[in-house]
Records
---
Amino acid sequence: MHWLIEFILFFILVVTALTALNVRNLLAAVVAMNVFSFMAAIIMVSLGAVDVAFVEAVAGAGVIGVYSVVAIRLTSRKSQD
Amino acid sequence: MKTLQYFLLLAFLGILVGTVIHLPPRGDIDSPVHQTVNPAGTLVAGTYYIQHAYKDTKTPNMVVAVLADYRAYDTLGEVVIVFVGGIACFFILNLRRRKP
Amino acid sequence: MSDKPLTEKIPRYCKGTGMMAPTDSPIVHIACRGISPFIFLIGLYVFFHGHYSPGGGFQGGVLMAATILLLRLSLGTGLSQVVMPASITLRLSAVGVLIFAGTGVITMIFGGDFLDYHFLPLPWLDPAYLRYYGILLIEVGVVLTVMTTLIAIYDDLLGY
């Protein structure tokens, strides 16, 4: 059963990464990147690296999201390409 | 342009998968990193930390002992990098605002 | 309720200061002001308990910065200057780096190498506990630097 949980986590990881690349709305891309960071943190927990997972969950899924939202508010909300 | 991006991503995925399938399986006792003595005949660095970390520093969490005691230079560089990042943000973002 | 003038909707603690919050919803204000001290307490626990459990200076510092960022987001940058003024953040960050490097310089003055805690001038302690308190001392520097630098970058982005 252990590999099944990790397979689901890796699947969500890839899907959120492709979503963040493809979506036009930049706010949705930020949310997808936060989900990506959180899934990476859970995978690190399952690998046994609790300290690295702590940094990833707090910095990658918390503070980076705030900075990205502020940067989007200062520029534009839609992607141009 | 979009198809070129996906071909680049697929090529990178192929390189990663080709590398990862040659690694030893996770938690393998016979892999070289989990031996106490490496093939050259000397002690692996991780073995020294596991055997001596609690006796040297009385700190049960080995990660903090390695980060802040054995490898304190690296942590100093990390903190200086965070500080320099803050200073750079201060100057660059205030320069654009002061110009007009 | 909606035909009140806008000045009636400003919360009580904003009156007379000339500053306004980005939202006038009392639910957002009370929830964010109520929960932020507890997150700060969790950050302090993660920092001081880092010797025994997963955690340490960097994680605790980011958690403490997250509480101040929560107040900045909910109350606005102007009102939350009371908690952590924007003028002292980068100075405290420099103080943190100074604590870290100063520990190393002190051990050099007392005859050891750079950052060799065995030579800290606390002669009543065992050598192992000297290293224990040396780790705690440099973690204080890490916490100060990380926490204040993250807040300073947020303030610079919004131009305060």
---
Amino acid sequence: MFMQLYLIAVVMTALSGLPALIGMGTGKGERVAAYLLAAGCLVGLGGIIGALFLPQPPGVGLPWELPGAHLLLRLDGLAAVFLLPAFLIGGLGSLYGLGYWPGSRYGMGAGWLRVFYGLLVASLVVLPACRNGILFLLVWEVMAVSGFLLILAEHLLPEARRAALIYLVATHTGTLALFGLFALLAQVSGSFDFPSPGTLAGGTGWASAIFLLALFGFGIKAGLIPFHIWLPEAHAAAPSHVSALMSGVMIKMGIYGIIRVVSFFATIPVWWGWTVLILGAVSGVMGVVFALAQHDIKRLLAYHSVENIGIILLGLGLALLGRSYDLPELTALGLAGALLHVINHGLFKSLLFLAAGSVIQATGTRRIDLYGGLHRQMPVTALCFLGGAVAICGLPPLNGFVSEWLIYLGIFQGQTAQAPLPLSLTLLIAPTLALIGGLALACFVKVYGVTFLGEARHEWPKPVGESPLSMRLPMVVILGCCLAIGLFPALVLPLLQSAEAAWRPGSVVSELSIGLAPVGWISLSAGLLILISWSIFMRQQISWRESLPRPSTWGCGYLKPTSTMQYTATSFAEIITGLFRWGLWSEIRQVGSRRFFPDSANFSIHTPDIILDRLIFPLSGFVSRIAFMIRSILHHGIIGIYLLYICLTLVFLLIFVLGF
Amino acid sequence: MENFANILLLLVILLNFFILGSARLGACIRSVALQGAMLSLVPVLLHHGSPHSLILGGAALLLKGFFMPWLLFRAIRQVQIRREIEPMIGYVPTLLLGTLATAGAFIFSDQLPLIEAHKGSLAIPCGLATLAAGFLMLITRRKALTQALGYLIFENGIYIFGVLLSEALPLMVEAGVLLDLLAAIFVIGIVMNQINREFASLNVQNLSSLRE
């Protein structure tokens, strides 16, 4: 029954874009498309949640003509963790698009956007359920290509074309690795159908090759450093609700792939866990440092995705180490933290992207340094952004805290007396995680403070106002979900347990609820925290006297303060980016003198991506120069010689055939 | 029947040498046409007149024996040339190379792991030798027309291989190959006219100024 619901939902989402194409120009078709997608997502949510209560995960298996392929889908707990955000964010994003990307403004482009958006959502909701390698690759490509077309939504801008091209190259490099991965997997397990968890031998060379290919192929999609090159560009160039879906859900498919692939193995070598931990730590710290240095709001959020992928990997690394050292508590907590962070990041990052989109639509720019004092015109957006910011910094009472807290618990769980020495090194993860949290907090103080607080910095061509209901409603719903998980983590524990049962053979059920993770305390303290802060706020409101003049922020008591006296985003972040100059390699351009009577001065700072702009582009430039040199020798325009090349190749191949 | 086919194949090799050593374009075109026409008989002979081979042979005869020579004669009438002058390698060295290649083809085909039915068949060395002759023609000659002829000889070589497989090869594939050839000859005909108009000669060397 629930499987049928789920399948209906998949078909509805996949076809949802068509009404928008047919009924273009009326605005009616677009609304039908949005409601169809939202309804499909509701049906799908119902199906997934219902399926969780069944004793056995429901599935469907049909034969297929393609060699090695089956239409094999199954909705187990691990898939559900990734499917729930996909359905939720997909449906809400489609409603958001009604206000953000309406046909009245973008014409036919809005219709096509709906088509590709529906396809992306459909592929995202099928992918975690796939249990056959070939089916998985097909759906994976649908996802990759529809993502590419969505990034191209504003294809008239060279920036969008560049972003789409980089994305396409990156995603297909990953797909190449995945082809190798599934071929090897079929070699080892004997079939393209996924093996059951814990059935393959882990210590062999094949297993290591599979793990490394998964880390590379899925890592590109997930965006871990150093494979994150496509992420900042693509998230910045795509429409905001698409960025929300990509950042919140699509990059998680990379995480899903890694988690699913390691689940096939019975034993996990120690170095797997350490590799994942180190990659996670690097992604987490460098992601947030690069985020601090950005002044484009969507690029900044994109780097925060890299950071959060790092946090997820930290949890996963702990879980893998728990498997290697046979510590079930460590595995349970690490995996629970990682999976809950997958859901949480899906929620709060899409909330942030939607709120950022609302600001961008009101102001028409993505440059943070131009914003200022927007909370007066856009109170709902400001509140939602604040909620997302608190969540992403891992602060109570929102959901980001819960998942990071689980990872912290896991770290301390590993420090038992009988733990082997290398395992106690995981204690270093705790300060790393704290550093990430602190830097994220600094970054969001910067963004929120500069964007919503203070005074307006810029004269906008048209008055800035709150966004329409179709954009506010999805944000408020997601904020509600964030708050619900933050206040009542016990709600998601059964989901996490069933996911662990699907991940680990013979795992101990209901480990989390008994003692390991005292979530009741979280609810209590989060509730108290809200109560206390609310009462302090109300007290201030009551004691506020109308007669007091309202000074301008950062006015510093000057007689005539101007808005340019405020901290800008760049100057605020400089305190921290200065510390990380060794890793950022920012380009600083400064014109002007520092004499007693200053004349006109100019300062600008730009932080290109260290991997893409400093490594890959110079490297590919070098390779192409060499290729040009070789070409100028081989390519001289004499047809006879070209034919000689073919002839020589043929002779060589004939000799080759004889040799064997 | 088998013997007759073998005689035809030997004639094909002889014609290869004639074409490689001849400077007169008209004679070359006629020889290539004759070669194509003879080859179109081979599948009919080898497969004892099965309908499949009849269709194939008929189509090949029409195209290679009549239509393409007619196209090429028309082309040289239009551009007013009779002879290939100054090939990149002289005629005698080309002939020597052709002999070496033919000998190599016979030696090579002895080494090939073939199925029982094709062991000792003349078709394989003959096909290889014709391929090599086509290649030699393509590499050593300068005029666009002789290049077209080289291409045709080359295709004849492939055709000889195809004969061995003609029972297994679907008709559609064969028809596709023939159609390809026809299109290619058309294109070369057009290119010839264009080169002639642009450079007042047919030398494909002039095309090297078009490279990037």
